[in-house]
Task: structure prediction
Amino acid sequence: MIAIYKRELKSYFLTPIGYVFCGMYLAVSGIIFSYTTLLAQSTSSLPTYFLMMIAVFAILIPLLTMKLFAEDRKTRTEQILLTTPVSLTGMVMGKYFAAVTVFGATFLVNSFNYILLFQYGEPNAGLILINILGLFLIGCAFIAIGVFLSSLTENQLIAAVSSICVIVVFLALFFVVDKIGVEWVRVFLKWFSILDRYRPFTIELLDITAVVYFISLTAVFLFLTVRVYEKRRWS
Result:
């Protein structure tokens, strides 16, 4: 797993993908942060900033995950991975952790923006920390979704677009679920709504059930990716 992790991590910076992701993430986040907080000289818009960043994740994270498995299928190096002395779980986790490392490092650098808020008073540190945790967990879940969809195709563009579509569906549930007339359907779909799960974080509530949900969502899509390759190995 470590060898695969190092290989994938290195590949991010041997190709433009890693630089494009980091540059776009920091640029877009900086612009949103400036308009919602710094220019307003207020921290009251922080929840808006965090929610907007989730939308940014929906677009940028698929760019980070689109090549993970699709490239191996296209270049026919997939069989080498399947015959290496590493478990399928180790192979998937190695690639997943490489993407999480790039995302996490960029996320950490971007978090230094919050230090600027102390120029305008005494921002709510608890609110900031709780939302940082929530955003990171959502980012990890989005990466798992992207990893799974990348394993289904050899076309990186299809992997990226399909990942964006699936993530958007999870986010769109927040806006449509209350319009559904059947109560049990509404309750069922609301359980899967990422924004509904995230909402307590924006009012400084650390919702343990939401944390478990984000971790479970990550685990489910990683499990499905392992099953895809388990089937492919024996087909």
